[in-house]
Every structure is written in structure tokens, then in C-alpha cells.
Design a protein that fits this description.
By secondary structure, this protein is α+β, with helices and mostly antiparallel strands. It has one domain (3-80). The chain is 27% helix and 31% strand.
């Protein structure tokens, strides 16, 4: 089974040098969501101080499988807010 690497970029690169063995790209994309959610939970309220960050997934050959990019933007929150519920 292939190994995937989950790199975090938030102004500096934190490269995953160990990787995780997964069944394939679909499982790696699902794991990227889990990793991102864990990071958001760990950051708690300080998420808003981190600006933009990304979880980038690569396979063993260095090919990008996917990237999830997050932007914490309090200033423009009202501009993109969902309409009120009926």
C-alpha cells in the first residue's frame, strides 16, 4: 500500500517525513480532512490569529494528491455570511 505525506504550511513549512500508509488517494483525501479538523480543534480560538494555512498531501513520488487551504478572516465575515434562516 502507498505512503502519503501530510505537510502543513502556515507561514513556515512543517514537512511530514514519516508519512502514513493508506489504501489510495481517496483515503488520503479523507485523511487530509481529519488532519485539518484536528488542527482546527487544537488551535481553538487562536485559529483567527493564524491567517492562511494549508494541508498539502503528497504521494511517495512527490506528486500532489490534494491541498486544503484555510483562511481565517474576521474582517470580512459579514460579507460572506449565510443569509438568516427562515
Amino acid at each position: 500500500m502507498p505512503r502519503y505525506f501530510f505537510h502543513v504550511i502556515d507561514g513556515k513549512e512543517m514537512l511530514d517525513t514519516v508519512g502514513t500508509v493508506l489504501a489510495g488517494e481517496a483515503e488520503a483525501r479523507a485523511e487530509a480532512i481529519v488532519v485539518s479538523g484536528e488542527m482546527l480543534k487544537d488551535l481553538g480560538g487562536t485559529f483567527w490569529n493564524h491567517g492562511e494555512w494549508q494541508v498539502r498531501v503528497e504521494d511517495e513520488a512527490g506528486n500532489e494528491v490534494c491541498a486544503l487551504t484555510f483562511l481565517a478572516d474576521r474582517q470580512h465575515l459579514q460579507e460572506v455570511a449565510l443569509p438568516p434562516r427562515p
